[in-house]
Amino acid sequence: MVGASARYALELAWPPAPAGLPWATLLTNALGCLLIGVLMVYVVERGGAHPLLRPFAGVGVLGGFTTFSTYAVQVDQRADQPALALAYLVVTPVAALLAVATGVVATRGVLTLRGNLARRRAQSGKALR
Q1: Of 5, 44, 75, 86, whose CB neighbour count within 10 A is largest?
Q2: Residue 67: CB partners within 8 Å, gap ≥ 6?
Q3: What is the pLDDT of residues 31-75, one digit of tens each?
Q4: Which of 53, 18, 46, 34 is closest to 118 using CA atoms?
């Protein structure tokens, strides 16, 4: 409900133009995929998260937020504009994949940086003793 409500609010704030790209849906799907990439690294690679975090946040919240069924309907609604429909058909999954990859790489980088800083602090603490 949380994710779907957030998506609905975004669609209300930025309704799709009949002759243009549905930017709110594209943004929703890309942002949701970015956050799924972050979540999966945090849960799977870092570990130690509550076992229900992944299904609650990934399937529940982010699954409700992203909307690939609306994307499919919106592509079909633009069938009378084949170039626009094709562009939207291609851009959305490409943006989604790039967003997931960005989320994964950025989260790994942040976790690595935090680990390195913690190790340096621990080593400098030992040197002072």
Answers
A1: 75
A2: 7, 25, 28, 29
A3: 999 999 999 999 998 888 898 999 999 999 999 999 989 999 999
A4: 46
d(CA 76, CA 109): 39
Residue 22: strand, helix, or coil: coil
Tokens 């930025």 correspond to what residue?
14
Q: Using an 8 Å Cβ cutoff, are 104 and 114 in contact?
A: no
- Length of the chain in terms of residues written: 129
The 10s digit of each residue's pLDDT in 79-89 is: 999 999 999 99
Q: Where are the domains of the chain?
A: 2-13+21-128
CA–CA distance, 47 with 67 (Å, rounded to integer): 28
Amino acid 86 reads L
pTM over 0.85: yes
Phi, psi of 23 (to 5 degrees): -60, -35
